[in-house]
Design brief:
The chain is an alpha+beta fold. It has one domain: Aminopeptidase, CATH 3.40.630. The protein is built from 4 helices and 6 strands, in the order ββααβββαβα. The longest helix has 16 residues.
Length: 183
């Protein structure tokens, strides 16, 4: 039996769906996820505890939608992420299909426990339906349980929808410079 993300993990389900509020093709296949009047869809957010073919395939599909400069992680890299005490990979599912992912990094520094949200990605077909919000809320709840004093994230200015989401969720812009060193 293959393992699926969520076995033994935290599962958070939110947003009720009207199953009659969906778009279908002439052949009856669903082209868009069912929506509530506010645009939200029901997803289950799980902590990915093990990597299987489904997770590898989902990340191979999702990461190119986030970054064209970095290849998607393979099975080995995903296993490292899942095995690390410093990272938590969250996946969002709708009807047993992974439609989004988020990685949270947790670390202790002299001034306390900190967390960062990285690589939030939602499948293009499911954007604007609060999947990213549900992933982020799950990460924030986990960070709070860890005792994190704060949770940081970055978002490119070219992603206005994501920036509006984070502001709406209570994130505040920091008066700080972000530097990157690339050898």
């Amino acid at each position: 039996m293959s393992w699926r993300c969520g076995d033994g993990g935290v599962a958070l389900t939110s947003t009720v769906v009207n199953p009659h509020d969906s778009n279908t093709d002439s052949d009856g296949s669903q082209t868009c996820a069912p929506r509530n009047p506010d645009g939200a869809i029901k997803v289950t957010v799980d902590v990915c505890r093990h990597v299987d073919d489904e997770v590898v395939a989902a990340m191979a599909r999702l990461i190119p939608q986030l970054s064209s400069s970095n290849p998607p992680p393979g099975r080995c890299e995903l296993e490292e992420i899942v095995a690390s005490d410093a990272t938590t990979l969250f996946v969002a599912r709708q009807h047993d299909h992974i439609v989004g992912a988020l990685t949270m990094v947790a670390f202790r520094i002299p001034t306390g426990m900190r967390t960062r949200i990285e690589d939030v990605v939602v499948d293009e077909a499911f954007r604007g339906r609060r999947v990213g919000e549900q992933l982020t809320r799950a990460a924030l709840q986990a960070a709070q349980r860890m005792g994190a004093h704060s949770t940081d994230l970055t978002s490119r200015p070219s992603r206005p929808e994501a920036n509006r989401l984070y502001t709406r969720m209570g994130f505040q812009r920091r008066d700080s410079n972000v530097y990157r060193y690339t050898p």
